[in-house]
Amino acid sequence: xxxxxxxxxxxxxxxxxxxxxxxxxxxxxxxxxxxxxxxxxxxxxxxxxxxxxxxxxxxxxxxxxxxxxxxxxxxxxxxxxxxxxxxxxxxxxxxxxxxxxxxxxxxxxxxxxxxxxxxxxxxxxxxxxxxxxxxxxxxxxxxxxxxxxxxxxxxxxxxxxxxxxxxxxxxxxxxxxxxxxxxxxxxxxxxxxxxxxxxxxxxxxxxxxxxxxxxxxxxxxxxxxxxxxxxxxxxxxxxxxxxxxxxxxxxxxxxxxxxxxxxxxxxxxxxxxxxxxxxxxxxxxxxxxxxxxxxxxxxxxxxxxxxxxxxxxxxxxxxxxxxxxxxxxxxxxxxxxxxxxxxxxxxxxxxxxxxxxxxxxxxxxxxxxxxxxxxxxxxxxxxxxxxxxxxxxxxxx
Length: 397
Prior knowledge:
- By secondary structure, the chain is mainly α.
- It folds into two domains: 19-142 and 157-197, MFS general substrate transporter like domains (Growth Hormone, Chain: A, Up-down Bundle); 206-397, Growth Hormone, Chain: A, CATH 1.20.1250.
- Helix content is 82%, strand content 0%.
- The protein contains 17 helices and no strands.
- It has helices at residues 3-15, 20-34, 42-49, 54-81, 84-104, 108-121, 125-136, 142-170, 172-193, 209-212, 215-232, 237-246, 250-276, 280-297, 304-322, 324-332, 338-396.
- The longest helix is centred in the C-terminal third of the chain and has 59 residues, at 338-396.
- One of its GO terms (molecular function) is transmembrane transporter activity.
- This is MFS transporter.
- It is a multi-pass membrane protein.
- Residues 21-395 form the Major facilitator superfamily (MFS) profile domain.
- It comes from Nonomuraea glycinis.
């Protein structure tokens, strides 16, 4: 094949064939992630701009986590009852309001209330977004579609975080306004360009009882919890372990971590189509196993170079898992309950965000880096085995 034909073929295989509403969702996700500037700098904002102690800032962040736990379950029910589009757009508008409320709060009670509200609404879009992709995209194309959404999130977040660092120097309030505007843009784009896809005529009464009675889904949620506990170490215990334990500077750690975003942006579009043609159960198990190996190897890191090597390993696993988990979720969920199933799926990530720092910090303090990273890798291997054990039941769906 000539060089002139390679590029169009690659573009078609990576980006072609997906419906226009999906690209509206993708574009809105990218815009929203480009504007995600508040959360990476929340701790700095609370201590420097609002003068809170580290303990008080920790309490504020814990309330965000509490709100996030409720968020996924509530948003999952709403996506099935009032619709995917209304839940996503409404959640984004509520997030914009909560962002500005937090930015202008000056007393601790107001900050606590705003932070809990932000946790309640900031990720409310996720169950609706997952359900929308399952509704819009054929089963064969879902791995690629979910992978492209993952790519947009990482591309936007990496740029937004860099720009946020510069804007914070001009004043933290800028971060809240940019984040709020990006949320409104996402809401408007979805409302105007994405049709409502919620199946009509099905019973939608009740809460999560029907989901919890699905043993395969509960088992899959536990597997995803194990996977999420792995990944959550990257922004909870890993920075502390590398800077305080290994002795790397924050600049060295940031340089190594930048490799994660670079690899995802480059490799994800290349890999998603190929991965989508593989058995999703074995593919997800492989991805989790590779991530487990990467985190276990972190026990031996002594330099920036070897940290970068371990990051490259677990990033490879992250790329493999990116579009596959959503694909399996879509297989398991009845169309009229996709919001609830996605809510339980998202709940596992919220639980991991709460448990990961407690688990990681405790292991690091009691047993040192090897206890932390070998245990983390072991959790991943248990999740890998669980995924393979669920394989026959998932394939029967």
